[in-house]
Amino acid sequence: MSRPPHNPAGQPAKPAAALATIGLSRGRRAACPAPARPGIVSIPDWQHYPWLLAGFSTRQGGQTTAYAAAGPPEQNLGYTPEDDPATVAEGRRRLVAAVTKLRRPSRIPDLITIRQCHTGIIRRVDTAALPLSTPDGKALLRGDALFTADPNLLLGILTAD
After folding, report:
1. How far apart are CA 127 and CA 153, in angstroms?
2. CA–CA dist 142, 83 (Å, integer)
3. Nearest CA to 83 among 111, 63, 64?
4. Residues 6+ apart with CB under 8 A from 106
């Protein structure tokens, strides 16, 4: 029979810790892990512009397994045949909430995206042109770039990795 583990001071570990070392617990349910926050890379100098909400998403912190190759879930923000539209919509919602968290807007804005078509089309968007996406969040506009002077819109550009 093995001895219970000891802490660095040589004292016996607490019973819960001893049980945990062999994969047992005292009958309590383990807490469900909180979903990971979406991965976002930000540019520190951009924080000097209080009106600018910006970030670059990564694959980390997502909920889709469509492209995960048996690994951990990833963040996929593009509506593709391989992924569940509800999972993509939730990923986009979580990303927008993470990007806007510091500014606490009165409402979380929709993420306005574009259907890339490899042309020279650049689209200016504003709230007068709403809706700019379908109810499930898919882009209505076609083109290759978006810009706005409207502080109430959050623009997103999708690229392939």
Report:
1. 7
2. 21
3. 64
4. none
Q: Which two tokens stand for residue 69?
A: 């190759």
**What's the rounded Cα separation, in Å, for the pair 63 and 22?**
30
| Residue where the block lists tokens 């047992």 | 24
Tokens of 6: 């000891």
**pLDDT per position as a tens digit, 100-139:** 875 555 566 778 999 988 899 999 998 888 888 888 888 9
The model's pTM = 0.69
Token pair, residue 154, equals 């959050």
What pLDDT does 2 receive? 46
- Joined together, the tokens standing for residue 158 give 């999708």
Tokens 């995960």, residue located: 68
- Say which amino acid occupies 70: A
Q: How confident is the model at residue 24 (pLDDT cuts 50, 70, 90)?
A: very low
DSSP state letters, 91-151? HHHHHHHHHHTTT--SSPPPEE--EE-SSS-EEE--GGG---B-TTS-B--EESEEE-S-T
Report how far residue 115's alpha carbon sits from residue 128's, in angstroms, rounded to the nearest whole number.
20
